[in-house]
Amino acid sequence: MAVTNTRTRPGLEQMAELGQQLRVDAVRCSAAAGSGHPTSSMSAADLMSVLLTRYLRYDVGDPDDPHNDHLVFSKGHASPLLYAMLRAAGAISADELMTYRRLGSRLEGHPTPRLPWVDVATGSLGQGLPVGVGMALTGARLDRLPYRTWVLCGDSELAEGSMWEAFEHAGHAGLDHLTAIVDVNRLGQRGPTRHQWDLDAYARRMSAFGWRVIEVDGHDIAAVDRAFAQAVSTEGKPSVILARTRKGRGVASVEDREGKHGKPVPDPDEAVRELGGVRDLTVRVREPDRTGTPHRFPDGPLSLPAYEVGAKEATRTAFGRALAALGGARGDVVVLDGEVADSTRTEFFADAHPERFFECYIAEQQMLAAAVGMQALRRVPFAATFAAFWSRAFDFVRMAAVSRADLRLCGSHAGVSIGQDGPSQMGLEDLALFRTVHGSTVLYPCDANQTADLVVAMADRAGISYLRTNRGDTPVIYPAGERFPIGGSRTLRRSPVDELTIFAAGVTVHQAVEAANRLASEGVPARVVDAYSVKPIDAETVRAAAHETGHLLTVEDHWPEGGLGDAVLEVFATGAEPVPRVRKLAVRDMPASATPDEQLRAAGIDARGIAEAARALLDGSPD
Amino acid sequence: MAVTNTRTRPGLEQMAELGQQLRVDAVRCSAAAGSGHPTSSMSAADLMSVLLTRYLRYDVGDPDDPHNDHLVFSKGHASPLLYAMLRAAGAISADELMTYRRLGSRLEGHPTPRLPWVDVATGSLGQGLPVGVGMALTGARLDRLPYRTWVLCGDSELAEGSMWEAFEHAGHAGLDHLTAIVDVNRLGQRGPTRHQWDLDAYARRMSAFGWRVIEVDGHDIAAVDRAFAQAVSTEGKPSVILARTRKGRGVASVEDREGKHGKPVPDPDEAVRELGGVRDLTVRVREPDRTGTPHRFPDGPLSLPAYEVGAKEATRTAFGRALAALGGARGDVVVLDGEVADSTRTEFFADAHPERFFECYIAEQQMLAAAVGMQALRRVPFAATFAAFWSRAFDFVRMAAVSRADLRLCGSHAGVSIGQDGPSQMGLEDLALFRTVHGSTVLYPCDANQTADLVVAMADRAGISYLRTNRGDTPVIYPAGERFPIGGSRTLRRSPVDELTIFAAGVTVHQAVEAANRLASEGVPARVVDAYSVKPIDAETVRAAAHETGHLLTVEDHWPEGGLGDAVLEVFATGAEPVPRVRKLAVRDMPASATPDEQLRAAGIDARGIAEAARALLDGSPD
């Protein structure tokens, strides 16, 4: 039997039947896996049956069709339901469905883009809706196409603040092609949710945030159908279908019972019988609305700002100006900022390309998530805030790596060198955080021309790239137009008789050069390397320095853990060679307020501190 | 002239005068500093004048009085206003006020507990209200005293999802001794906020979250006074005073103007004249309400669970059981969980000590913030969620270190060894994140008895301690009652002729022992160290191993960056000695779903992978 919605509208009974099939398949595949979340799938099965049958517009044969709707499972643990839908839509086979959670299978415990019909990874709750907001923004403001974004949410995840960042952003932006479907099954992982089946409690909150709220019995197929119809007819605001459902619906031994989260049903064969047996319905999903073509902003020649050697400029300013120039060259570049564009200097881009600038206000999680949604839809997003405040969105960065997302992030106001504002505003762990991200790139330029070149390189870099910028002015030391390949470094001082090598990046490069000058005047030749590419580090240069100078001194405006010093040490952690004597200079005491120079002095990472450490390292009497 | 509220209620005019004094002092101290946020202080000056004069109940001479109210500046950048209040209250001198933002001053750019009247550091927006919720919970459920918690919030920070986690938690808990005062001055850092002066937009949201909302003109002293009176008379729900204000109020050159954020006013002398000149009012703050004594839960003997060597138990279970036992011994221990108590096993504590257990639902930021608030009020909080999801609250952890907070955090479900759930649920960066925290302790036990001992040690540990636990069962290898000092390690295999040392922790300890057995059978003696204390690492044992065996192999269920391997390398980063040959084994590819054993195998951190790596390290042919 084929359910099809292309000509005749499938009836309510057919949709009810499909709902049962989705349940049966969720039960079967999780039973075969010995783990998984069938009960969380069963509560939402009727909702997804109606969506798949009558409302979703999607070319299953061409997941990259720019006219496709997008469906995000914010409650990623309901992956059995998603995979059952894909089977019903003919995207995957019945056999593949049964590989759920096995080694090598694309059907992971939580959805990832290893499946071509999945845009982004989910599984950390509270992320799918914010990402969906990014997709809806792309549809409304960038592509300017009528496709819709559908997000299946759980009720437990409504406790996450990031969901309310999403409700706020979408409500204010009036994203009427975005619909959240909330599966209010009353039960979280360990018991009842805060509001259980008090749908009105949720409705009050969502209405207050500017959404159209449609309450429905999530197992009344006709009512669900009407709810979707209301959602698609809503204009000027996003819509949410608040569906009262029962977890484990359809199988008495688990339905609406505590202690049944995240495990196969106890007797799968009996459950399948109770659900009416295995079915083999297929759905021909509606064709996308192919009205219009995706809007494209024009490309143009790249005209990067150039800085005179010897001038002074902050790397954050160079970042902003380069970004504006890049935006003129590439129509696919978009920029997001967390209400600090005057500090990060993305204001230059905002002024030049207002249609491609997204003010996210002080909501770093929503900002990062929107960027993830935009890159999934073929954009090249850059997002910026203070380096310290990326720690606010780090779970989203972590999940973006699971999403195989290509993102370019900038953190300004790095380190103690910001000065008087004190430790709450100082990014002192950002290098460590971004170095842990799988497949990441971590860059830390020391002058304006270097910054500009790296910004351009980031646009074509796969994975998550992070650029660290400084607040204060630094001297321009490289001529405009020089290239700074990712994975490279620049040796600023060297001689055949160097007794040690100082590795620095960003603000400490200039201190290191000054320290080398002092040491030279004392007859101690020191090599200085500008390690602007912290990850990947220039291993060849590190090894050569170790071989030739025997002593390595690393200097960073960062906590001792996980930054430049560890990146240098990492080169020797393959066991292939003994490591030379290495000393790490970093920020070791909690800073307070002081001028930038006083801060560098107090942390011992100014020229004087570096020179002292170098002498001690050579004397064999450090610390 | 002295403004006093102990007998006669100070009049409106006096409060208006004090408001002007607070503005003048904010202007003066930021002008002297050459930086700071006078305009953000001036908008809230009338609000704080009324609070300080008539409503705050606080013994300035004894900031540790348990009956004191608490005042948190969630908009920490308005520190000049706070310091001006402290001067007016006689806590600091006029001279000290003028040290604002100078090297060595307690008056930092953003408030920190270096000032005894400041409970917690603020400055990363969106954190003060969630921390205030923790204080109000302490008052209502632990201390059971009538003190109040007041939180001054900015309007910009209402974009942070964490604020809505706080509104949700406090509203649902009915914390009627909590009052938020929102300074709606319409202007954020870089321009207008999303809702500007649309107080109704905020009011709808906060009402929907169960708060009593009081809208007011924040410069109408009489109206502000009535608003506070309404707030303190509110029962059964928290209250919020939504105050329409003007940024830079009182100085025409900056009042309600863009581009005047975060900098001294242009002409301070003229501004002070415009504000009516320097004043020298003092306020005698109302005495605390000394009704009652703080409730204390009883202490008792400590009776830790004991596990038989050779039995199998998950360290997460041992954590939960030890925590329950600790709760019986210490009445000051409280526990918070993010709706995963059945996974983290804090459910044992919840069952044994329900009055001291706080269900925070899936809101990790609010959970961490509540713990920060509770430790500021003399409690010993433990908080737990999946290791991966601590990344959600990391900005709060970062700020907790600035707060000099003593916190005990547990992350369960660490590493690829969780198995089928896949990468979204795997904590693979948690060791790196927590190692970057200033003054932190990072522990990773491998068996149940070791876990229990470390849980007890954490209770007395200053700073932020983190315990990593595993999902699956591991064999018990240590007898009950053995001690595992923080900073120590256990050498599990050793001989005088060891050719290398394997450093492992948690799940990899058991794999390392098995690898050593395999190597021994091939005639390769290998030392095995259980490095359960990742930070501080047992440097002496690391050095001895390097000296005696020459080759070090580290093995961790974690990304390569920032974890155990880097902790071992860190020992050699003082430059005092050359580094031996070191190889780090870690998780290098993005995992997917598979069984725990398959995961360890795929990552090359099982016994076979360790033995292979050991042979290659000794052969000098790694990788």
Features:
homodimer, 623 residues, alpha/beta, Rossmann fold, 3 domains, five-stranded parallel sheet, 37% helix, disordered N terminus
SSE inventory with pairings:
The structure is a homodimer of 623-residue chains.
Chain A: E1 2-4, H1 12-33, H2 38-42, H3 45-55, E2 70-73, H4 79-88, H5 94-97, H6 128-143, E3 149-154, H7 161-173, E4 178-184, H8 199-208, E5 212-217, H9 221-232, E6 239-244, H10 268-274, E7 282-284, E8 312-314, H11 315-329, E9 333-337, H12 341-344, H13 347-352, E10 357-359, H14 364-376, E11 380-386, H15 394-402, E12 407-412, H16 430-435, E13 441-443, H17 448-459, E14 464-468, E15 473-475, E16 490-493, E17 500-504, H18 507-521, E18 526-530, E19 533-535, H19 539-549, E20 551-555, H20 564-570, E21 581-585, H21 596-603, H22 607-619
GO cellular component, one term (chains A, B): cytoplasm
GO molecular function, one term (chains A, B): magnesium ion binding
Organism (chains A, B): Phytohabitans suffuscus
What does this structure look like?
Chains A, B: Keywords: Calcium, Magnesium, Metal-binding, Thiamine pyrophosphate, Transferase. Chains A, B: This is Transketolase. Chains A, B: One of its GO terms (molecular function) is magnesium ion binding. Chains A, B: Belongs to the transketolase family. The structure is a homodimer of 623-residue chains. Chain A has 623 residues and is α/β, with parallel strands linked by helices. Helix content of chain A is 37%, strand content 16%. Chain A is built from 22 helices and 21 strands. The longest helix of chain A is centred in the first third of the chain and has 22 residues, at 12-33. The radius of gyration of chain A is 27 Å and the shape is elongated. Residues 1-7 of chain A have low confidence and may be disordered.
